[in-house]
Amino acid sequence: MPLTIIDISDKANPDLKGRIQGGGSPNYLSTPRDVYVVGDYAYIPTAGDDSLTVIDISDPAAPTFEGHIAGTGSPNYLSYAYAVVVEGNYAYVVSLTDDALVIIDISTPATPTLKGAVTSVSYLNSPRDIIKSGNYVYIAAYSSGDLSIYDVTDPANPVYFGGLDSDETNTTLGIAKSGNYIYCANQYYSQFGVVDVTDPSTPLSHGLLTHAKVLGGIAVAISSNYAYLVSSTADCMTVIDITDPANPAYVTDFGGAGSPNYMNQPSDITIVGDYAFIACYADDSLVIVDISTPATPVLEGVIRGKGNGLDGCVGVYVSGNYAYVVSSFSVAIGYSQIIIIS
Under DSSP, is residue 269 helix (H, G, I), strand (E, B) or coil? Predict the structure, then answer.
């Protein structure tokens, strides 16, 4: 279960750069679920180690363990840590089985410390994704069907601020924010939802697209007037026109399991410039797609295989010339790893 670093300077020919792996001591990378990169560090919630693990990536060819914080239940509430966003001196983590939002002080990456936490079966039931904007974090609470909003102005005391349980937020696994809107990738019901958060205390249902290609929606990214949703059921990336957020419209889809696109069960998507970077769980691949013309996405490059540490990819983050991919399996080694692709 590695963190793998991939060199993407030549997007048509992505190449393995470095990796670090190992559940438990000393690397604490058992079942990583997400990755967020800031500066010289990658922050990784690990479900198997119930931790937030910090990796020093200053040398992409040789990433090293920097620090971690772990623990189920009180006080750290990191049982099955699932998703993370980082801003300033804090990492904001949601943990699946503790039904919790946990705020961690990362001002000293070697010794991350608990700053604040809140648990709620009502508003944080099995949270799957988190984003931060201004003084608020927006959380997809999968089991309760909620989009929950917390005020984190005081990181030591996060406070529930508003929420919505509707068709737009039902079984949401992935969320993205653009302007005053949250866009929701929903696992069931073939639906893509739009929520108006102009007033975060009172989020409102705003738009809904029903289409077969969004069934199994697991993650979504926004670029300009388009949303790019990946579906683990339809094995594709669906392009959605959100020029009018009240009326999201299907544009096209791109995918297919196996050769040539290797998009069997995509699990995460990141967009940088004219390219979408997609981690695909069942094809053990990082797929790079040219989206410069949204109506006609084109395959740009692929790197795949267990030998590249991409066995069961679940998360991807792009920074500079590198893609940082976390994977849930490693057949050759038998434990979690992070892979860096340049």
Answer: strand
Cα 90–Cα 204–Cα 236 angle in degrees, nearest 5: 70
Instruction: In whole angstroms, give the CA distance from residue 145 to residue 183.
Output: 14
**Dist CA 92 CA 80 (whole Å):** 14
**Banded pLDDT at 328 (limits 50, 70, 90):** confident
pLDDT tens digit string along 83-93? 999 999 999 99
Q: Are 308 and 262 in contact (CB under 8 A)?
A: no
Cβ neighbors of 2 (< 8 A, separation 6 or more) are 19, 20, 21, 29, 309, 326, 327, 330, 333, 336, 337, 338, 339
**Backbone phi, then psi, for 308, in 5-degree steps?**
-95, 10
User: What is the amino acid identity at position 34?
Assistant: D
Two structure tokens written together for 122 = 């009502």
Instruction: Determine the average pLDDT of the residues in 241-251.
Output: 98
Residue with tokens 């000293």: 108
What DSSP string describes 8-72? -SSTTS-EEEEEEE-SSTTT--SSB---EEETTEEEEEETTTTEEEEEE-SSTTS-EEEEEEE-S
Reported as a single tens digit per residue, the pLDDT across 170-213 is 899 999 999 999 999 999 889 999 999 999 999 999 999 999 99
CATH number, domain containing residue 198: 2.130.10.10
- Buried (b) or exposed (e) across 96-135, using 16+ Cβ within 10 A? bbbbbbbbbbbeebeebebbbbbebeebbbbbbbbbbbee
CB 222 within 8 A of CB 209: no
- Taking alpha carbons only, the member of 310, 231, 214 closest to residue 265 is 231
Q: Which domain holds residue 56?
A: 2-341
How many structural domains does the chain have? 1
